[in-house]
Write a structure and sequence with these properties.
This protein has 2 domains: about 130 residues, HUPs (Rossmann fold); about 140 residues, 3-Layer(aba) Sandwich (Rossmann fold), CATH 3.40.50. Helix content is about 45%, strand content about 20%. It is built from 11 helices and 12 strands. A 10-stranded mixed sheet has the order 3-2-1-4-5-12-9-6-7-8, with helices on both faces. The protein has a two-stranded antiparallel ribbon with strand order 10-11. α7 packs parallel to α8 and α9 packs parallel to α10. The chain is elongated and about 65 Å long. The protein starts with 5 loop residues before the first helix and ends with a helix.
Length: about 290
């Protein structure tokens, strides 16, 4: 089996998209974008979506304001973002645009616990789970522009967990991250077997790709989501990685209550949301090819 090479995973997009509404949380997202772009040699694009039917001169005014933000960003960080103004709906067109551009990542700012419903109501859930591109949801600016040193990786019995491993390796290689695997205290034999399959899969490829990791047991009697937040706060995690949940009755995916609670964590820890069959799933070919 071959190791994953970060540059192989880069070939599809080399672009980070920041939905931009001229708010502080968008600025927070941009700072995370700068941090990641510097490390993975990606471009950044600020995306503003205006209502359908917006007059051309108003669209041009918005684009001029975006260019001002881009120029300020270049002056401050030495990186010039691209700009794009589209007509449409912020809750339906972000994912489509990111997919069309084959972006590596969308970074979206939110207001946290109080404002999270703005982004995790029924429409915004579709933004995240309808995307072929991973979404990083942030509440605060990064503490530094260097590394995501500590990444919390909750693991359970779902087979989709395996796809999250590929992103963990990607982050580990670029940011020298340590992956903190958190597993639930499962007693049911069948579920325990599935958890162990996922755990062994993760360990195998983390070791193969020289990624530092540790394994931790979640507390009994506490939901994995709640304990994920507790543990992430305890170790001062830089990032939490989660998978979206497959709806048993439908062919689509959704953000369950537990995922929403993690995204809205009171500590403001960034959360990377990965959909099964997302762009990063295809890096499996570098493992098996």
């Amino acid at each position: 089996m071959k190791q994953i090479h970060p540059h192989d995973m880069e070939k599809s997009g080399k672009l980070i998209i920041i939905p931009w509404d001229f708010s502080q949380v968008a600025s927070n997202a941009l700072q995370h974008g700068i941090k990641i772009a510097r490390n993975v040699d990606n471009d950044i694009q600020l995306l503003n979506i205006v209502k359908a039917g917006t007059p051309p001169h108003e669209k041009e005014q918005v684009n001029e304001k975006l260019k001002e933000v881009a120029a300020e960003t270049e002056k401050k960080y030495g990186l010039l973002p691209g700009t794009m103004v589209l007509e449409g709906n912020i809750f339906s067109d972000i994912a489509d645009y990111a997919s069309d551009r084959k972006a590596n990542l969308v970074i979206m700012g939110t207001h946290g616990v109080k404002g999270i419903q703005k982004f995790t109501g029924s429409w915004a859930v579709k933004v995240i789970v309808g995307s072929k591109v991973p979404f990083l949801v942030v509440q605060k600016p990064p503490e530094d522009l260097e590394k995501y040193s500590r990444i919390v990786f909750p693991i359970d019995f779902r087979s989709e967990n395996k796809e999250k491993v590929y992103m963990a390796i990607y982050m580990g290689k670029y940011f020298d991250s340590k992956i903190h695997i958190l597993k639930p205290p499962v007693t049911d034999r069948n579920l325990l077997r599935k958890v162990n399959v996922n755990l062994n899969f993760a360990i195998k490829f983390l070791i193969q790709n020289n990624i530092d990791y540790s394994i931790h047991d979640s507390r009994k009697g506490v939901s994995l989501a709640k304990d994920t937040i507790r543990f992430a706060e305890e170790i001062r995690a830089d990032l939490i990685m989660i998978m979206t949940t497959k709806n048993i009755n439908f062919s689509d995916y959704l953000l369950g209550v537990q995922e929403q609670s993690i995204i809205a964590n009171a500590a403001g820890i960034p959360v990377l949301c990965i959909n099964p069959k997302s762009n990063y799933a295809k890096v499996a070919q570098f493992m098996y090819g």
